[in-house]
Amino acid sequence: MPSLIDLVTIPAQLDGRRKITDAQKEQVKYLHRIEGKSIHSIAKTVGISKRSVQFILFPERLKVVQARAIEVKRWEAHNGAAERRLVTRKHRAKKQQLITAGLVKITPDILTKYQSKLKINAINNQKARQRKHVV
Q: Do residue 111 and residue 99 come from a single domain?
């Protein structure tokens, strides 16, 4: 059954998983293209790594690095099922804290989506029960 908390979206400024914001990406592009600053100085100014600056300015480099990692078998899922379960629980708890603190709201459209998902699940469960009885 879907969880209501899973439908809630955390704003980027409150989401601790997100390391580089869209505003930082725009700042990196501005500093490089308009002001002509070096990658090293941009990294210091924005507070991110030089490699991250390179990946923002030259996305094709990221694709090359990812392809190379796959070739040498270093690009595998780093989280097993148990780890993923813990991460999901932690993220849901963070969302619940933000909702309780009033920083994130459950809007009517989220409630509508949740109710429709519940209805779909109920219909699918009913169909599954009917198939079991037919066989």
A: no
Residue-wise pLDDT tens digits, 47-65 = 899 999 999 999 999 999 8
Domain ranges, residue 30: 4-104
**Which helix or strand (DSSP H or E) is residue 54 part of?**
helix 50-57
For 20-29, 42-51, 69-78, 86-95, which range has the lowest pLDDT when averaged over its residues?
69-78
- Count of residues making up the chain: 135
Query: Which of helix, strand or coil describes residue 128?
Result: helix
Name 80's Cβ contacts closer than 8 Å, sequence gap at least 6. none
* CA–CA distance, 30 with 35 (Å, rounded to integer): 7
The secondary structure of 19-50, three-state, reads CCCHHHHHHHHHHHHCCCCCHHHHHHHHCCCH
- Does 1 have pLDDT greater than 60? no
Domain identity same for 90 and 129: no
Residue 42 class from Cβ within 10 Å (0-12 exposed, 13-18 middle, 19+ buried)?
A: buried
Tokens of 123: 């219909």
